[in-house]
Write a structure and sequence with these properties.
Length: 287
């Protein structure tokens, strides 16, 4: 299988540095660290591609008894610009699966999974877009604006993606809406509504209870496979998993579909750094 190397952007380098500096088996709960059991609050999938006849298949599993609100973001590989992001709502022990496949001019996401997404993924799939790198130049790789490189949708054909737990859902009515009955959630329209707000400042009431989500608790795991049917190849991998990501001072990090947040900069600024002999908390600053 032919693999194309994509440009190491500032985000990619920062991500590598951050992952390389955190502990693998830390015990400080309020510190970002690599999971030692393949489960956590953030899943980072370092590569997807639709080039050379490949499709990328992916899954995320909620292995807990709590419902989860997740942000899924796909970034193209040339400069890490956002090409698709949306929210997924997983009931307890629920799994969501999808694939990134080729189109005539770029790539798109397809899924036959019935778990709730906001917005809903059309039956024919959701095309990746180039608005984040085709407009006027602006600072920041996740913002709308040109970056001096091609604006072609071809850039969407390879990159990476991340899944971030925004919070747990305890509202009884929302839980009932996203819970499966005979393989189908009861009412995805509840979480797809434009008025839905699970953020920490939300005043929305659903079924007589606050719609606010509560703190992320982890328990997410996932897989990805680069499959080439014509070539008869299947390269599977597990994502990088971070635990202790959600800042302890906030109730949740929920944001609506289409928002660029949360992203990897939303993490707790304390990381667990492992030396040759000891692990200790290290505090960082955003900037």
């Amino acid at each position: 299988m032919s693999m194309h190397k994509f440009k190491r952007s500032s985000l990619t380098l920062a991500l590598v540095a951050a992952i390389g500096s955190v502990g693998i088996a830390g015990t400080t709960s309020a510190a970002v660290h690599l999971s030692d059991n393949g489960q956590g609050q953030v899943l980072i999938y370092p590569y997807y591609t639709t080039r050379a006849g490949n499709d990328t298949y992916l899954s995320v599993l909620n292995s807990t008894a709590l419902s989860k609100a997740l942000k899924i973001r796909f970034s193209e590989g040339k400069n890490g610009r956002d090409v698709l992001n949306f929210n997924v709502y997983l009931a307890p022990y629920d799994i969501w699966t999808a694939a990134v496949v080729n189109t005539t001019d770029g790539a798109k996401l397809v899924t036959a999974d019935k778990s709730c997404t906001a917005p809903a993924i059309p039956a024919g799939g959701k095309d990746f877009v180039n608005f984040a790198y085709s407009g006027a130049a602006l600072e920041g790789i996740n913002q709308s604006g040109g970056d001096g490189a091609t604006t072609s949708l071809d850039r969407t054909r390879e990159g990476y993606f991340e899944i971030i737990e925004m919070g747990t859902i305890t509202n009884t009515a929302i839980n009932a809406a996203i819970t499966h009955a005979s393989g189908v959630p009861a009412n995805c329209a509840v979480v797809q509504a434009a008025t839905m707000d699970m953020g920490p400042a939300s005043a929305l009431v659903v079924g007589g209870q606050s719609a606010r989500a509560f703190k992320a608790t982890g328990g997410l795991s996932g897989t990805a496979s680069l499959i080439n049917v014509a070539g008869g190849t299947d390269f599977g991998y597990a994502p990088v998993v971070l635990e202790g990501f959600s800042p302890p001072a906030v109730e949740n990090i929920w944001n609506p579909p289409g928002s660029i947040f949360p992203d990897l900069s939303s993490a707790d600024l304390t990381s667990l750094v492992t030396t040759m002999e000891v692990s200790f908390p290290a505090h960082g600053t955003q900037g």
